[in-house]
Write a structure and sequence with these properties.
Elements (H helix, E strand, L loop, with lengths): L3 H15 L19 H6 L26 H5 L6 E7 L5 H9 L6 H11 L1 H4 L4 E4 L4 H7 L3 H13 L2 E2 L5 E2 L11 H8 L3 E2 L5 H4 L3 E9 L3 H12 L4 E9 L4
Parallel strand pairs: 1-7, 2-3, 2-6, 6-7
Antiparallel strand pairs: 4-5
Helix pairs in contact: 5-8, 9-11
C-alpha cells in the first residue's frame, strides 16, 4: 500500500487540476497557491526602509534611522510600533477582500511568511500574539476572523503563543471603511475590553497585535490603549497591509 508521503504529490496534482492555482490579486493562472502573477507582482508596493520608526509608514526621502513621521510626532499613537508588509491599494485590496469575505485561504501561508519577513523587530522579545477581535455577531456572520488566521499562522512559525481570548470586542461598531479618521476613532473608542479573568495574563507583557489592514490606526490605537490600561508593558502592531497617503 502506498504511504501518505507517496500519495501527497498525487493528491496535490489532482487538487491543482480540479482547482488550478490563481493569482490572489487578478485571479489569473500561476504556478502555485499564494504566488502572484508576474504582472501583479511587479505592481505590488512593498513597504521597506526608510520608514517611520513608530508607525511604519514609508518615507519618500532618505531619513536617519529612528526618525518619526510628522503625524506620530504630533500625536504619538497608543501602540509602540507598527509594521506592515505592503501598501493597501488596488493590487493588494483583492487579497484582503478574498481572505476577509470570500473564504479564499490559498495565499494564507504565503501572507504569513511575508509578515514574518518584515516582523523580526516587532516579534523580538514579544510574549503574546493577539489578533484584532471581531464582535461575536460579526464573527457569527463571517464564520471566522481573518486576523486570527494570520495570528495563528504567525504563532505556528514563530513559536509565540496566540491568545485571542485576552482581548474582546464588546461593542458592535459601524464598518470603518466609510468613516473619516475622526469618526473611526470615535467609532472604536470603547469597543474593546480585556476580560477581568484575563488581566493577569496581560500584565507586564509585550504584546503583538495582529491585523490584516491598518488604515488610520484607530482600531490599533483603541486595542493598544485597552491592553495597556489592563497592564500590558508594550503593544506592537504587525499587519499584512496598510494605507499610505500619497
Amino acid at each position: 500500500m502506498a504511504s501518505a508521503k507517496h500519495l501527497m504529490p498525487l493528491i496535490r496534482l489532482a487538487a491543482d487540476t480540479a482547482f488550478p492555482p490563481r493569482c490572489p490579486s487578478c485571479r489569473g493562472p500561476v504556478a502555485a497557491d499564494g504566488n502572484f502573477c508576474t504582472d501583479c507582482f511587479s505592481k505590488v508596493r512593498m513597504i521597506a526602509d526608510p520608514l517611520c520608526a513608530c508607525c511604519g509608514v514609508p518615507f519618500v526621502i532618505s531619513m536617519e534611522p529612528g526618525a518619526w513621521c510628522p503625524a506620530c510626532l504630533d500625536t504619538p499613537p497608543d501602540f509602540d510600533m507598527a509594521r506592515a508588509v505592503m501598501v493597501y491599494d488596488a493590487v493588494s485590496a483583492p487579497l484582503v477582500t478574498a481572505l476577509k469575505f470570500h473564504d479564499q485561504w490559498a495565499g494564507l501561508t504565503r501572507y504569513v511568511q511575508m509578515m514574518l519577513g518584515i516582523g523580526p523587530t516587532v516579534l523580538k522579545g514579544a510574549d503574546l500574539l493577539i489578533p484584532v477581535p471581531l464582535h461575536w455577531r460579526r464573527l457569527w456572520g463571517r464564520k471566522y476572523n481573518q486576523s486570527a488566521l494570520l495570528a495563528y499562522g504567525l504563532a505556528k512559525q514563530s513559536g509565540l503563543v496566540c491568545a485571542p481570548a485576552l482581548l474582546q470586542r464588546v461593542q458592535r461598531t459601524k464598518p470603518q471603511m466609510r468613516l473619516d479618521k475622526a469618526e473611526r476613532a470615535r467609532n472604536v473608542k470603547h469597543a474593546f475590553a480585556v476580560p477581568e479573568a484575563a488581566r493577569a495574563a496581560v500584565v507586564g507583557k509585550t504584546i503583538v497585535l495582529v491585523d490584516d489592514v491598518v488604515t488610520t490606526g484607530a482600531t490599533a490605537n483603541a486595542c493598544a490603549r485597552t491592553l495597556k490600561k489592563a497592564g500590558a508593558k508594550e503593544v506592537r502592531v504587525l499587519a499584512f497591509a496598510r494605507t499610505v497617503k500619497e
